[in-house]
Write a structure and sequence with these properties.
GO terms for molecular function: ATP binding; ATP hydrolysis activity. With about 270 residues, this protein is of the alpha/beta class. The chain is built from seven helices and ten strands. The structure holds adenosine-5'-triphosphate. The site of adenosine-5'-triphosphate has 12 residues, from strand 1, strand 2 and helix 1.
Amino acid sequence: MTSAKTAAPTISVDGVGRNFTVSGQTLVAIEKIDLDIQQNEFVSIVGTSGCGKSTLLNMIGGLDEPTSGEIRIEGKPVDGPGRDRGFVFQTYSLFEWMTVEKNIRFALEKSSFARAEKDELVAHFIQAVGLSGFEKAYPKQLSGGMKQRVAIARALVYKPSILLMDEPFGALDAQTRGMMQELLLKIWEDHKVTVVFITHDVDEAIFLADRVIVLASRPGRIKKDMRIELDRPRSYEVLTDPKFAAYKREVLTDIREETLKALSAGQG
Ligand SMILES: Nc1ncnc2c1ncn2[C@@H]1O[C@H](COP(=O)(O)OP(=O)(O)OP(=O)(O)O)[C@@H](O)[C@H]1O
């Protein structure tokens, strides 16, 4: 008999707020966000510039702390960064003096994996991100897309259960970006990680995610939590699906509303 118990959410954001002090004034960047993300879910976060997307992601990652409320990972309050969470940012932050292989292996430096296991993990993720043959290349010899593949491999190599991605494809050209989105979905399907993905690109948010969260602008709050019911595995053909167009229209309308509010409040 299967257990009727519902699994606790992997990420639980509970009444979280974040204030900053700017020139002696309190800026409420995020106000009372409640958000549960389940194991293996792919969640995209969109919203106008400055609505608090990165602040929220940084708090989930333990790089920043809430002013109020609590974030829990697998039921445990977040207390700094941890090996259960991998980060990928827009800028690649690779070590220029290290080869692809060494950049990825560096993430395992402090891990307890045995040497042979480390070799195996590095080789596995180089292959998973499609960089076989480039093990000995240096970052300056790689394109933007390839550098971001190294960053993804480095974030996944110590097998975190959560991948936090802050506009990871924002600096890439449209074609490379499309390829990277498909690669990311394949990796997500093969490795079963929970992904929180920030983007300004509404097509990208919908194409990738199980849920799209739209944040309202200052203070950042959840404006919409929309489930994306498009079949998986997804390919680029889904972009022409009428359901896709309807989701897109809804998200764009929300973002436009928030942008207008921010502009009229002098935040633009
Ligand atoms: N360390 C900080 N000190 C002061 N204010 C901050 C700090 N970090 C963020 N903020 C402010 O908090 C608000 C939210 O910033 P955040 O970077 O999270 O927004 P965002 O939605 O990720 O923006 P963008 O889409 O432009 O990257 C902004 O008004 C920003 O200026």
